[in-house]
Design a protein that fits this description.
The chain has 124 residues and is α+β, with helices and mostly antiparallel strands. 35% of the residues lie in helices and 19% in strands. Strands 2-1-3-4 form a four-stranded mixed β-sheet, with helices on one face. The termini are far apart. Residues 1-23 and 119-124 have low confidence and may be disordered. InterPro entries: Thioredoxin-like_sf (IPR036249).
């Protein structure tokens, strides 16, 4: 019996309700080799991103456009520009940032997308 089935069985037996977490949001970064703006993002934002509220709410996932898209992103258009940042929640795109606007604007744009989806406001 799998762990998940065992948890449900245990909940049924004890009368407890278990709630499963929703699929996590993620920030998908579509990038390609030689992208100068990707390198700038990597220098300015990437080292701190996971430590921010945004990074905890939507962890960074990198996708190399020089390789086939992962199957779970087949319905997401990566666009023509790199980097392109797409917030994906439960397999659906909820917003994007085309290009890297620089450190001063990145978190503001990301916050607007996250707030527009009725998510708690993230702060750095």
């Amino acid at each position: 019996m799998s762990r998940r089935i065992a948890k449900f069985a245990w909940a049924a037996v004890t009368g407890l309700c278990l709630s499963l977490p929703a699929a996590a949001s993620e920030l998908v970064m579509f990038e390609r080799a030689g992208c100068g703006w990707c390198a700038r993002f990597n220098a300015e934002i990437a080292p701190i991103y996971a430590k921010t509220d945004e990074g905890r709410d939507a962890p960074l996932r990198r996708v190399d456009l020089g390789k086939p898209l992962p199957a779970d992103l087949a319905g997401i258009d990566p666009g023509a520009f790199t980097p392109t940042f797409v917030i994906v929640d439960q397999g659906r795109e909820i917003g994007r940032i085309r290009g890297y606007p620089g450190e001063a604007f990145f978190f503001g744009l990301l916050g607007r997308i996250m707030n527009a989806t009725n998510r708690p406001q993230a702060r750095t």
